[in-house]
Each structure stands twice: as C-alpha cells, then as structure tokens.
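Hi V.,

You were right to ask for the full record rather than a summary. Here it is.
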Amino acid sequence: MFKYPLLVIAILMFRISGSSQNLVPNPSFEIYSQCPTSDNQIDRAVPWMDVTPTSDYYNCNYEAESQCPHGRTGNGYAGVSVYRPSWSVPYREYIGTFLTSPLIAGTEYYCEFWVKLECDKCWASDALGAWFTNGIPPDPPGVQMLFNTVPQILNQQYRMLDQRSDWMKICGTFVANGGENFITIGSFKDDNYSTFVQLSGCPYQNYGVHWSYYLIDDVELVPYDTTMVVDCIDSAYSNPNPGGGNGTPVTPYPDYSIDHECDIWIPNTLSPNADGLNDAFSISTDTLEYWSIFIYNRWGETVFSGNSKIISGWNGKNDKGEPLVQGTYFYLILSPNEKCYKKGIITLFE
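Predicted structure:
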C-alpha cells in the first residue's frame, strides 16, 4: 500500500533542510512505495523512474544484483549498467525524476551525485553524468539504448570510477537555459569515446561480472552562489583552455590515475606531403593496449583528438579532416590501462 503521508512529509523535509533547497526529490532513495523484491524496480523509489529499462533499486535489505550492501547515506540506493562488452550495440541504463521546480534561465546551478562500482564487476568507466531536460527525453533511436548527448554534468575524462568500497563524487556547475524540469543520470558517451578499464582481482569469473555496473546515491541540485564551498577538483575537469602558463598543455587527469611517462617514441616533426617521409606518426599497439591522443595549437586549443579504437595516430589534420597550417603543436597521449602519458612538442611542415 502506498504511504502518502510518509512521502509528503519526507519531501517537505527535503525542501526545507539545509541552506539551499535541493531540487531533486528523494535524493537518497530512502522513500519507497513498496520494498524492492527483484531487479528493475527503480520506480518504487518514488518519484524516480526508468528512463530506459532496466534500472534497479535497493532497500529493505534487498541486494540481489548489488554485492555492496548499504548506501552512502541511509539504506536506499539505485543501480545502472553502463557497459556490456559482449553486446554489439551500446547498452546503457538510466534513472530519472522530475525536479521539484523548473530551472530558471540564466541561473547557475550546482549538481553532485555519488557513485561506486558494484563490488563484483570487472569493468570501470569514466563516462557517467547528469542531463537536465524539459520533460522526459524521448527513447533513443532504433535498437540503441544510448542517449548520445553532452550532459550538463559529466565526470572528468580519464578519471576512472574504479572504487568498489568508497563512494566517488561527480559534480559541477552549469547555467540553465530555462524550463529544464527533469534529471537523467547514466552514461552518455558512445563506446568509442568512453574509457573502459578491465580491473584485476575480480572475485568471480563468469559472464555476470564482465560488464560495468554502478550504484548511485545522494543526488543534489541547488542554485549556486559564490558563498558556497564547492570542491569538484577531484570530480570534474572543466578547463576550456588547456594551455598552461609556460605554453604546455595542462594534463587533464589526476596524478593517482596516470602517474608515469609511456615508453613510446614520437617524432618531433611531421610533414604530411605524401612523399612517404614523416607523413604521419603511428602509436605502437604492442606497447599500449589502449590510448587517446590530443593535439593542441599554440593558444592551447584542442585541434584534434581521437583514440586507438578509431585511429592509429595523427596525420596533421584537424577533427574535420582539414590540413592544419604549419607551425608548432603540442601533443598529449594518455593510456589509462597502462596508467601512463606522453606529451611534447611537434613541428608541422607543409
């Protein structure tokens, strides 16, 4: 039986607690219409819902899929799948809910939520985020289960969400267009533009653990003001200008993730004139199993990026396939599997 008085009192408490009103109802998934008794029951954590099937809800000592008992706060928490390597199309699960009031145009908001990798899963990802829309987003096209969009809040690229015992915060700020009244949480990147790392020491070796599944708790959205103490340094990288003070790119990853230089050779000149000499450089897959590359111009702007799933190196062109003008460029290569980087200067000749 649905407990209306309990729900109303709880939502009122969420609205008046703290210095700022949390616009996300039931942010810690404590309120429920019924205890979960099987998977795919996120709709029991009222008013949360499946945005795409088949997200999960844990409370009342029900932990069938989750081997990590207890939420970050309280007893309730949610669970979503973000990657299944054996599937031919991107597999994603999303949870969502209507906000307590629409967002105001031109107002800056702060959002945070906490995640951790389910205890027996073998794949970690970097691609979780929160997307704010006007109404429930329409279903992804065709057989796809992926919302291939850029959400307002996105975990830092290459910051692997690989903790099974500790909760990790994802947070950031954004300016509303106005009218956004629905939040969707999940992974919004295609597999080719996400980073997945297979972890060692998996407790089981069967199909069920060979995918990426995250628990979610404590979702918050409040108007941002300059008096707030916000620490997203370890959670979100949002530097639009990667150029450092000495003219070299700022490395967009925390030291604990990628901590040494890759043992690979990169030329210092490139002349893509089709003469067969230094027309492009390739990165050896014998040395690095997976890598991404970023090319910056002298003003610190990213002119090219890619990864080993879609390219083998760089040929002096930008992301649109257009030849770049000759001059000095900076490169940054990251390999999260080997936890190494390579950066330097390369001169491009026409």
